[in-house]
Amino acid sequence: MLQNQQQLFDIPEDINYLNIASQSPSFKAVEQAGVSAVLEKSHPYKIVTDTYFEPIKELKKLFAELVDVEDYNRIANIPSASYGMATVANNIILHKDDEILLIEEQFPSNYYVWEKLAAKFEAKIKLVKRPKTEVDQGILWNKAILNAISNKTALVSLGNIHWASGTLFNLKAIRKKTSKHNSLLIIDGSQSVGAFTFSVKEIKPDALICAGYKWLFGPYGCGYGYFGSYFDHGVPIEENWSNRLNSENLINLTNYESNYKPLANRYSSGEHASFIYVKMQIAALKQILKWTPSAIQAYCEDITRDAVIELQKMGCYIENPKDRTHHLFGVRLPDELSIDTLKKELNVAKIFISFRGKYIRLSCHIYNTKEDFNSLVACVKNAMN
C-alpha cells in the first residue's frame, strides 16, 4: 500500500488542504519542470524543431497508458474541458426532437455546450434528477439513468463520478444501453481520471475529456481528450499548422497540406506544444503512473474511513462507500450545524474544503493523513455546540 507522500509536495505543515477537486498543488517535480521550461524560453536559440513534436508524443503516450488506450494518436492536447466538449459537439449532427441525456447538477462546462447543440438542431435536453431519498441514492440514480436511455437518445454525457458528491456512475451498464440504442457516450473524466482507475478499452466511450489541473496535476490551462472512431474524420475548432501531415518539415510549411495527421491529432489546440506546460504535464503523469490510480484510491479510502464513521455519528449524510469514490465525496451537514461557525473553525485550523449549500465536498490525496481528517471532524463537532 502507498505510504504518505507529503515530502514530494511543498505544502506547509500547518496547512490542511482537502480541496484538490478545485485545484491541485504541484508536487516538487512538476514545479521544477516548470522552472526548467521557463528558463528554456529565456534561451530560444536552444529550441529546435523536435521541441515542438517529440515531447508531445511522449505526453500523449503517457496519458494513453493512464486511460488504457493502445494508439496515442487518439489523444488530443487541449487547453480545457470546455474546449474538448466544444470539439465533440462541433462534430455531432442531431435531428429534431433527438434527446441529449444529462444528469442533474452537471458541471456547467458539461451542460452549456449541450444546451447550445440542442438549440441548434431543435433537439431536447433530458435531465435525470438525483433521487430525493438518501437510501441507496447512487443505486437508484444509476437505475434512473439506464431507464431514461431510449431510441430517442442521441447521446449521453456525464462524468465517471458526480463532481460534487463523488457518486459513481455505472459506465459499463450505461455503455451497454447506449450501444443498444446507437447513442453516443461522452465522458467527462476531470474529477476521476488520475485518482480512480479508468479504462477506455473496458468502457469504450466515444470521447473522454479531462481537465488537467486537478487529479492529473498539470498547470491550469491544460487538458486531454480521447476521441473514438466516430470522430476520426471530424472538423477541428481551429486549424493548427502542427496538426497537418509533414508539419515537422518547417522548411516546406508553405507547401500547404490538405491532410491532417491521423485520428485525434487534428483536435489538438494551437500552441499545444507549450514548452512550459508540456514539461510539467510529463512530470505529473509519470508520477501518477508510478503511484497508480488504484493505489491512490486505496490510500484515500484508508485515511478517510474513520472520519466518515465519526461524521455519520454526528448526523452527517455520506453516501454508501461502494457507491462513491474515496478521493472525492460529499458530506451533508446536520441542520442544526451553523455553516458560519464551521467556516470560522476551519479558518482557524487552516483547513481548506469546498462548500456546496448544506453540503461540503472533501477531496484528498496522498499528501493527506488520517490526522487531517481528525482535525476536520473536530471542527464539525465544535460547530455543533
What does the model show?
α2 packs parallel to α8 (275-291). This protein has helices at 28-41, 54-66, 81-89, 112-121, 137-148, 171-180, 200-203, 275-291, 293-313, 339-349, 370-384; strands spanning 16-17, 75-78, 99-103, 124-128, 153-159, 184-188, 207-211, 223-227, 328-332, 351-352, 354-356, 359-363. The strands form three sheets. It has a seven-stranded mixed sheet with strand order 2-8-7-6-5-3-4, sandwiched between helices. The protein has 385 residues and is α/β, with parallel strands linked by helices. The chain contains eleven helices and twelve strands. The chain folds into two domains: 6-26 and 293-384, Aspartate Aminotransferase, domain 1 (Alpha-Beta Complex), CATH 3.90.1150.10; 38-290, Type I PLP-dependent aspartate aminotransferase-like (Major domain) (Aspartate Aminotransferase, domain 2, 3-Layer(aba) Sandwich). The model has no long low-confidence stretch (mean pLDDT 96).
